[in-house]
Amino acid sequence: MISNSTTAYRQHDHHRCLKAALAQARNRCSARKARLTPIRESVLHLLWQSHRPLGAYKIIEQLSASSGKRILPPTVYRALDFLLELGLIHRLATLNAYIGCPFPDSVHSDYFLVCRECGSVAECSADSVNKAIVSTAERAGFRVESQTVEILGLCTPCQSTVEQPALEQPGVKQ
Ligand SMILES: [Zn+2]
Ligand SMILES: [Zn+2]
Ligand SMILES: [Zn+2]
Predict the structure, then answer these.
(1) Cβ neighbours of residue 163 under 8 Å, at least 6 residues apart?
(2) CB atoms within 10 A of CB 130
(3) How far, in Å, is the centroid of ligand 1 from the Cα of 18?
(4) How many domains does the chain have?
(5) Are 156 and 122 in contact (CB under 8 A)?
(6) Ion ligand 3 residues within 5 Å by Cβ
(7) pTM of this structure
(8) Which of 24, 28, 55, 103 registers the highest number of CB atoms within 10 A of its CB?
(9) Which ligand is nearest the CA of 124, by number?
């Protein structure tokens, strides 16, 4: 199993995550003879501001603000498509948002642990889950083209800050 859950939800030197992501992106681009143009790099950089996913409109807004000119949606969507294609980012369907991939160089499938409180997302991949999905699909005669599993809940730090709802005791009235 691979996962970045030990960093995603905790205080850490995030600059290292960002540096690693940009280095991996450059390697991947040169291996594929693709160009990490300034706009592609800016979008990736934005997505690596934190471990929280960003929607396309937030990206457009932030890029326009930082560059001082209006960045058009198709420009950003093209950059996102490029980064998706290279496996440098993922799209979270339920949130309609994008997140940087922490391990683009390993073969993995995408399980996301989405914290509903702080919004941080950790990415994991586990062979046992992959196998279960593939065999379930096979039994159904279904050919899998892509799989994304999004699991909603609370990360460890948020479990202690979010108040637990008082347990109701059925039948006991006060
Ligand atoms: Zn980080
Ligand atoms: Zn990934
Ligand atoms: Zn959290």
Answers:
(1) none
(2) 16
(3) 7
(4) 1
(5) no
(6) 115, 117-118, 155, 158
(7) 0.87
(8) 24
(9) 2
